[in-house]
Design a protein that fits this description.
Two copies of one chain form a homodimer. By secondary structure, the first copy, chain A, is an alpha/beta fold. Helix content of chain A is 30%, strand content 25%.
């Protein structure tokens, strides 16, 4: 067989040649821009030449600070196409983290949306490696930025030929994109994606979720979030219409209008968006979901009642998926098997609210964190999700120290603790570092938190382990009472509420009532902070 | 990203672990055998051990002489799984060719269906490399064969463990299967398929044809024909139910019963089968196609009127595909694009009767055989289909001489001449060697034959080039009159029939009336033979 590499350019070239009329739609605040694969390809070629003219070479990093729009789409193909590495920057990063990762990645050029320059201006002097700033402007005017040297994207590329010799004489293992993931401790960690990984990931995402040429992909998940879950590449591989909604992803009225106007069939997003959408619908918001076929949710758990109501009231059938920056990101999807068609709805939803079955091509070990043995597929035995496969990272970029603890013995140790039922569907129960070991047995802090939060007087609850001489650890519940119930709630009332809901030995001995639970930058409970502030107050 | 190889074993291991209850059904003359991925996996493991016990090592060739049944399915995974190469033998080969290719491949073990031993016995002494014969018996009894040493498949494997350490520490470019293609001149030529090629091919076939876990794959195409078009691997990748119909593929009543009993949704086969099926249906044959979703036809052209009638009368919607042994085999599929939904039926059928658009991942050049330039996408300009991509062969096995002429400049030169319309759909017009060059212009012998065969008094017609001093070549029509019309038909009547149907200069000057057209072993016009026998009779 030919030694022919798996390159992302192959997808775009085929789309440009055989599906040149299929649309790529980019929605801006002041209007919708439409073009097609034929035109997009030409601009990707111009971009590739332009990058060369800036001195960009194989393996150089090129940063994007951008939402979902057609120029960002061109960067997705043009940058890796000419051999450079696209570094997608999360526009919500703190200035410190932004500076850190750009310097760490060594970004040589930075592409910035015209309405985001003001976030870059204040830190520009700290960006040690950036030689050129490029403003991606739909209005065609240069904003009042102090960045320098700076040029408008369209001005930069317009003078170059509309064809570029994308060559298949390249190594598929070359880097195509890089993305940093926020760490709970220390600086963000970089994950480098190869052409090969993204290529294979595209095919498997498409096959698993049943994508096809007639799908219209609406990219709700930001393009700076783990390669937009691979959807732009999948769309090009199939010749799908693609819709880039820009800032409209946070405006539910606009988002619903895009869905119905463009007849979107396939969309991916985080639960936050779907919850906002649900709220909008419940308030009577206008919508037409008749075109929608596939809705993917991932990044964190989607509440069950919401998934049920979404489907029952609005015909919005959500497929929950699991993944992370280190996994390109797709790992698993909670799609019921065909022989379950006649299962009772309740049992089907038990499966749909798991994180699903691992994708074809990947290998899973659910590893007991003490013995290293594989957990049983009984829905109870817990283990850490360990993965290997062609689109699983093998290291963090230039970070051997932290790579060592996460990538061990050839496996990615995700830090996620899960159970797996006998049908192979995984449910996340905790993060490794948050599990509580009591009397030789594990307690899932997440399960315990959910049980406590079901108490009517509890707004939020976080559970951490506290050292215990006899049991090694015991759970400590940090509880935020519901507004106005601060004086009614007591440790005893919560304990008695839990009596028949969880194993007796899971019930916390200690309760601490707080005004709020400290959160991380991405809104998760900051248990490290809790341990630091709450535990010392308990020392006897 | 991890350096994780693309191995076929990955598919089966996942299916065995997460879809162990999904069925594999094998239909025998005397009854249907059912088991599942869980059980099949265990037997594949036993087989792998058994091959080791026979001394089979990495890269050794293991032959199968078998129709579509569950033991052949186990060979598909067990042989490449343990590192050997499965050589699928066409059971319709002439004894000479069978002996040639087995000796050429150096097959060390030969697995034979229990009702096919009698075809091997007569040539056994000529098989220079075979050390073991294994009879795949469903009845459990050894047939009266003189092959030696010989053992029953189930006896061979039963004593071995049901688990095998299939390792991912292997090179994905290792050979997995080998298949020989009959050449019009000389000995058959071998094509070696790597794990990587078959793996990628599976994903792309599935994505292109929209296969999913809920599909039930009915393997009508023989498993000795170009990897059964990859469908057994695709099925394992997705966890699909698979049905192996054995000899029933030639018994239309039995085939229809299998389709309805097993609720087959997806099937692949050559036009010969679909024509037999159509005849059976037209005679009022019992059938229920309500489960059928995807029918693939390939290998040769499906007549348009048959495709239309199939759909209109029986709801059997055929997707015509193109490929060959050298391409694993999938190259292209004639699936209309979504924006053509409202096209008139006639125009849609114009596309459905092409060989379609090239699959994602492959690269095509439609190459003018004189200038080497790319043909225009205008539906008229002709060129040779030249391909490259990860599942395109780069050579014939141990045949440098013939490899050189077919694999040139990094491209497979298919020898198929096609046009491509502006939507990218290709139509085959001829084989390179059958094109006729007249006055500096090309004449498609196939198009000309079709025009002549539309004449009511013509049963068959083959057109070959005859040397011409003035025009270099002129077409010569070899015509078989319809039964009973031998005395009515004349060259003049055919010429005048062609007047308004083709370009004037295409009309043959010479006509030869024959009793029959000589055919090759696969039923195609043997033009080499025609040139040899007919041309000398014309010499003036």
């Amino acid at each position: 067989m030919m030694n022919y590499p798996l390159l992302l350019t192959t997808f775009l070239q085929r789309a440009a040649r055989f599906f040149p009329k299929k649309e790529i739609v980019s929605v801006y605040a002041n209007g919708t821009f439409r073009y097609d694969y034929g035109q997009a390809y030409k601009r990707c070629c111009q971009l590739a030449h332009a990058l060369e003219s800036l001195g960009i070479k194989h393996g150089d990093r090129v940063a994007s600070f951008s939402l979902n729009n057609h120029r960002h789409f061109e960067l997705y193909f043009g940058v890796p196409g000419m051999g450079a590495v696209l570094h997608t920057l999360n526009v919500r990063l703190s200035p410190e983290h932004l500076v850190y990762i750009m310097n760490h990645a060594g970004d040589r050029v930075m592409f910035i949306d015209e309405d985001l320059w003001f976030m870059v201006d204040p830190v520009k002097d700290q960006l040690k490696t950036v030689e050129h700033f490029v403003i991606m402007s739909q209005s065609g005017t240069m904003p009042p930025t102090t960045l320098s040297p700076v040029v408008l994207y369209d001005d930069l590329i317009k003078k170059f030929p509309e064809d570029y010799p994308f060559s298949p004489d390249r190594d598929e293992n070359e880097a195509a994109l890089i993305c940093y993931t926020s760490a709970t401790t220390g600086d963000p960690k970089g994950v480098v994606y190869s052409h090969r990984a993204l290529y294979l990931h595209s095919l498997v995402v498409g096959l698993t979720l049943g994508a096809m040429e007639r799908d219209c992909l609406l990219h709700v998940v930001p393009m700076f979030h783990a390669n937009a879950w691979g959807a732009p590449f999948l769309g090009a591989a199939l010749g799908c219409k693609q819709v880039l909604p820009g800032r409209q992803i946070l405006d539910m009225k606009a988002l619903c209008k895009i869905i119905s106007d463009e007849k979107a069939t396939f969309t991916c997003g985080v639960p936050t968006i779907w919850m906002m959408l649900y709220k909008y619908l419940e308030e009577g918001g206008e919508h037409d979901f008749s075109s929608i076929r596939t809705v993917v949710s991932g990044g964190s758990a989607m509440p069950r009642h919401l998934m049920e109501s979404f489907r029952d009231k609005y015909g919005f059938n959500i497929a929950q998926c699991y993944g992370m920056t280190e996994t390109t990101p797709f790992v698993s999807a909670a799609i019921p098997k065909s022989y379950m068609d006649n299962w009772p709805d309740k049992e089907l939803f038990d499966l749909k609210t798991t994180v699903g079955i691992i994708a074809t091509g990947l290998e899973l070990r659910l590893e007991n964190i003490e013995t290293g043995d594989e957990a049983k597929m009984d829905g109870k035995d817990m283990g850490e999700i360990c993965l290997r496969g062609p689109w699983i990272a093998s290291e963090y970029y230039k970070d051997p120290e932290r790579s060592k603890s996460t990538f061990r013995d050839g496996w990615l140790h995700t830090g996620d603790i899960a159970t797996m039922n006998e049908e192979g569907y995984m449910s996340l129960v905790d993060r490794t570092k948050d599990l509580i070991k009591s009397g030789g047995e594990w307690i899932s802090s997440v399960d315990l938190e959910n049980a406590i939060m079901a108490h009517p007087m509890v707004l939020e609850a976080a559970v951490i382990g506290m050292p215990d001489e006899k049991w090694q650890e015991r759970p400590l519940a940090c509880v935020v009472p519901s507004p106005g119930r601060e004086n009614e709630i007591s440790a005893e009332s919560v304990k008695s509420f839990l009596q028949d809901k969880i194993a007796k030995w899971w019930i916390p001995d200690e309760f601490v009532f707080l005004k709020e639970i400290p959160k991380t930058s991405v809104g998760k409970f900051n248990k490290k902070e809790l341990r630091k502030t709450v535990l010392p107050t308990l020392k006897k």
